[in-house]
């Protein structure tokens, strides 16, 4: 019943001021959450990253990443690697290496071509469907190597201390693939709704944020074509609290 209202001046027809209470006002929205809880987002590759602490061998780690629609992490450029090294991952005391050092399985394998006086070989991307071009430098060889193994698996070592972390200090290890280790998964950014559910391409959803009355379409992992509902204040209630996850739902705080 408030047609032709100029929302900027709250004026109705005939120039009269129309008084009504709007609880949620549509505002330009910045969406900062493009990854599920526990994942870190990097804009440069539109990807999400997560460290898993349950120690698994390389092959089991690869399957765990696939179950969350990802793969063991590989890197497209030095900037992406620096982003990984700078993160303060949510790590528990439980770890498989020294407390100040962290090692993770990542998506590379070292193929041995010569076992003479020194091991010779080259890095390959473990996930054949990957288009990554960044390959690690010569590795440090692990201590648990078998003479029969011709393929070793990559561990990225980073450091827990902030000064070392932010300087990008790190090492690459070629390790026996059946050793157990934490691992780093990577997946494409995705739409995540206000209740932390992953949303498929093309579906409507309410993005994470401060407005539960927003409805958007998921397109390429981004919320697009958003519309907002406006809620009037609950009648007969002077003090109330908005539900942060349900549109136009209130709790009355009056005595």
From TrEMBL:
Residues 44-186 form the C-type lectin domain. The gene is Dgcr2. It comes from the Eukaryota. One of its GO terms (cellular component) is membrane. It holds the Pfam family Lectin_C. SMART domains: CLECT, VWC. PANTHER family: INTEGRAL MEMBRANE PROTEIN DGCR2/IDD, INTEGRAL MEMBRANE PROTEIN DGCR2_IDD. This is IDD protein. It comes from Fregata magnificens.
